[in-house]
Every structure is written in C-alpha cells, then in structure tokens.
Amino acid sequence: MANITFDTHRCKGCGLCVIFCPCGNIRMSDVLNEHGHPYAELIDQGRCTGCGLCFRMCPDTAIEIDRKKTAK
C-alpha cells in the first residue's frame, strides 16, 4: 500500500500520470491551480497499488509516494 500526494502548485496539467496509471485511478481536476492549470488528483487512495508509474512520468515532480510497510 502507498500514500500518493499531488503538489497542486507544481502540477502543470500535462496528464501523463493519468495516461500511465495502470489502475485508471488518477484524473484531472475541474478546478485550476493558481497558475491556471488543471491539476492531477487521486480518485481512490485504496485502489492505488503504489507502482510508481505516475511518479516516474511526472515532469514537474508534483507527485510523492509514501510506501507503507505492512506487518506480516
């Protein structure tokens, strides 16, 4: 499990994270940030697999991943 956060101030709305998310779990907001760009947002934190594709594809370093370790 992973906790994904988006920095709405850094996001320029390119949509690469939306395209590359294998779960289809990221969308572009209808709201614009202070730069006039729509920003990416997670649809459902529970559906995120933590694969990191969104993080690796983001040219604006607007995505952070906090991977949580689970007890066995």
Instruction: Report low-confidence residues grouped into runs of 5 or more.
Output: none
- Total individual domains: 1
CATH first level: Alpha Beta
Terminal CA distance reads 13 Å
Helix content: 10-25%
Which architecture name does CATH use? 2-Layer Sandwich
The helix/strand class is alpha+beta
Question: DSSP strand (E) fraction?
Answer: 25-35%
- Biggest pleated sheet: 2 strands, antiparallel
Inertia-based shape: globular
Average pLDDT score: 92
Numbering strands along the chain, what is their spatial order in the largest sheet? Answer: 1-4
CATH topology: Alpha-Beta Plaits
Radius of gyration computed on alpha carbons: 12 Å
Order of helices and strands: EHEEHE
Task: Walk me through the structure.
The structure is a single chain. With 72 residues, this protein is an alpha+beta fold. The protein has a single domain (2-63), classed as 2-Layer Sandwich (Alpha-Beta Plaits). It has helices at 16-20, 53-57, and strands at 2-6, 26-32, 38-42, 63-67. The strands form 2 sheets. The protein has a two-stranded antiparallel ribbon. A two-stranded antiparallel sheet has the order 2-3. The longest helix is centred in the first third of the chain and has 5 residues, at 16-20. The radius of gyration is 12 Å and the shape is globular. The two termini are 13 Å apart.
